Amino acid sequence: MNIEDIFTVSKSYLYINMKKSLFLALLFVFSYSFTFANDGYRIEIEIDNYEPDTLVAGYYFGKQTLVLDTLLKNDNGGFILQDSDTLDAGVYLLLLKPDNQFVQFLVDEKEQQFSIAFDAEDLTKVKIEGSSDNQLFNDYMVFLRSRRELREPLVEQSNMEGISEIDKTAIAIQIEKLDAEVKAEQDKIVEAYPESITSILIKANRPIETPDFEGTEEEVHAQKYNYYRAHYFDNIDMDNPKSIRTPFFNDRIDYFLKKLTYQVPDSMIQSVDYILESIKPSEKSYQYYLSQFINEFANSKIVGQDAIYVHIAENYYGAGKAPWVAEENVKKIVSDAQKIKPLLIGKPAPDFTAYNFEGEEVPFSSIDAEYRVLFFWKPECGHCTKAVPIVKEFYKNYKDKGVEIISICTKLGKDYNQCWDGIEEKNMGEFVNLGDQYQRSKVLKKYNATQTPRFFIIDKEDTIVMKGIGANQLGAVIDEMLQRAAKKQAE
């Protein structure tokens, strides 16, 4: 449940999608009946029919809902949220026990002394005194509700069976008039109170109206998509520090990255750069999302997205654009990226020379195949043991299609002979089985093979075409590669 639900409207601006408890929590009544000291914040909270002696105050920050304070009931039966510091402007909430219902309210940077009163059993009677932004929001909600009450019967009437086209047209005109009134009211609020949180919420939840395009159905679809994507953030104050403290902000960024961006590294990198550049004037927002992005892509399970991690590490952390991060941590991030970078999909595969059972040198470049699958493993690895039968079945089905399996045992030194015992035990003799007892070729370091099993698929041109997949995905990947090759040849 969050405030943006209230503003989820159709292109006609009036359909409201809200959850009941949140809607009730936001029906604020405004008056000034008292004054507070000007220093810090002080929010007095009175709750009827609320037995628990604690109340949690929280706030939104990016994708998180964080605890600001846990309040204890005072002698008068109320709660006070206060501190000598000021609150950052944004959307806050009070979490009620034991059912975790909550009341949301707005905090403006200039008005941080006010009161909240409501009935825990009837959230229709929430009352706030001393906050003009909350009153502005409440007035807008009252107006919006009144237009909805007029519009809904018209929509129902328009959908009735047997209604004439003349009547439908007349109803459509009335609906358009109501929609225009809502838009005009939104424009008035945004123009008169551009810095208010109410305006930020209204703008951010306005639909993007795409113009009419001409062409084939496919061309029109592509043009609409491109227009929508290009204007997706038009109504969002990306560089406003208040935005990150609203429930909608992270959802918008997440949708842009995952739904409006092609899920390939180059496109993702462009989107990440665009977002970071857009929010950069808001220092806390910039720090938060730069940190979130580096962590997200460092731990991504999506193949190839480590390229985004490398980009962020080099172009932000390594370029001094994260000065709040300790130098030793920056060095570690950059060092990790440097290990990953040579192994990104599309990069030339590092060459190496390993050794067969007889101790003979076998240069990787000497193994001729359309696709070479590097399989890093070790005898005692349970996942490797499970993977071997799958790899053997894969090889059986694809060896005649130009695929070769090169197994690299990761055991070293005195444990090296375990490799050959394991190969015999697992009946892996049909593979090209190699090892490097004394790390002379540094193959494990070159391929960052710190964990097993680990697979790389390398094509005839010595390019890494896939990595980071499981044994059961090898067949699907090779099938796709073969299809691409056949299509290219046919063109």
Structural account:
- A hairpin with a 2-residue loop joins β2 (about 55-60) and β3 (about 65-70).
- α7 (about 265-280) packs antiparallel against α8, α8 runs antiparallel to α9 (about 305-315) and α9 crosses α10.
- A five-stranded mixed β-sheet has the order 13-12-11-14-15, covered by helices on one side.
- The protein contains 14 helices and 15 strands.
- About 40% of the residues lie in helices and about 20% in strands.
- With about 500 residues, it is an alpha+beta fold.
- The chain has three domains: about 1-205, no CATH class; about 215-345, no CATH class; about 355-490, Glutaredoxin (3-Layer(aba) Sandwich).
Q: What is the CA-CA span between the terminal residues? A: 52 Å
Report on the biggest sheet: 5 strands, mixed
The share of residues in helices is 40-55%
Instruction: Report the β-strand fraction as a percent range.
Output: 15-25%
Q: What's the number of domains?
A: 3
Please summarize what this structure is:
The protein is an alpha+beta fold and 491 residues long.
